[in-house]
């Protein structure tokens, strides 16, 4: 893919917790190629309230602190979504941390079929040595250059979270390719370590073949995929990737 003028829009949604169409805020932050051919976080960012069409639940208010009065006069999702997800000017991809959540609302009807990058899945691949992979843990484990602390606050609001995610994406894209990130995002998450059970915290190359065969029947798609990938590596005789963490835990969004 030609990336000399590439642009990726990072998206974050806050929802009301009461239904399938209950977005109450959308935030965005663009990541672009600069004059030297490097990816950078651009000045294009913002957030809009969205009327979810029903009251926001107390459970979700306790997370993002958005009130019904904040969104009472805001446009509905179907009225505002495409203006953010299909902005003027070309974008090569949309991105989000644990993008499957945003994709539930940002359907092709609103995106025009733009491909997605999941920064959680990409972080597992690019930084497998890290102990945790939630958006905010990546922020403080990595301390990305140029991230203005105050702009990334409060957490669990759409624009600040998109801003933080964009710094992870920028650094990923400067370590690997846009095509790699797009490809990894179409697959399940490749967990660097076993997330639960008696082998929790061990890298997959330390697990017996017998246990790996047990893991490929696990209910968790990411666990199954990670075990299958390790079994395939052994069959093909490829070297293992050293991903032993400082502490054996995995973090989520």
TrEMBL record:
<dbReference type="GO" id="GO:0005829">
    <property type="term" value="C:cytosol"/>
</dbReference>
<feature type="domain" description="Exonuclease">
    <location>
        <begin position="7"/>
        <end position="178"/>
    </location>
</feature>
<dbReference type="InterPro" id="IPR012337">
    <property type="entry name" value="RNaseH-like_sf"/>
</dbReference>
<dbReference type="GO" id="GO:0045004">
    <property type="term" value="P:DNA replication proofreading"/>
</dbReference>
<dbReference type="InterPro" id="IPR013520">
    <property type="entry name" value="Ribonucl_H"/>
</dbReference>
<feature type="region of interest" description="Disordered">
    <location>
        <begin position="230"/>
        <end position="253"/>
    </location>
</feature>
<dbReference type="InterPro" id="IPR036397">
    <property type="entry name" value="RNaseH_sf"/>
</dbReference>
<protein>
    <submittedName>
        <fullName>DNA polymerase III subunit epsilon</fullName>
    </submittedName>
</protein>
<dbReference type="GO" id="GO:0008408">
    <property type="term" value="F:3'-5' exonuclease activity"/>
</dbReference>
<feature type="compositionally biased region" description="Basic and acidic residues">
    <location>
        <begin position="231"/>
        <end position="241"/>
    </location>
</feature>
<dbReference type="Pfam" id="PF00929">
    <property type="entry name" value="RNase_T"/>
</dbReference>
<dbReference type="GO" id="GO:0003676">
    <property type="term" value="F:nucleic acid binding"/>
</dbReference>
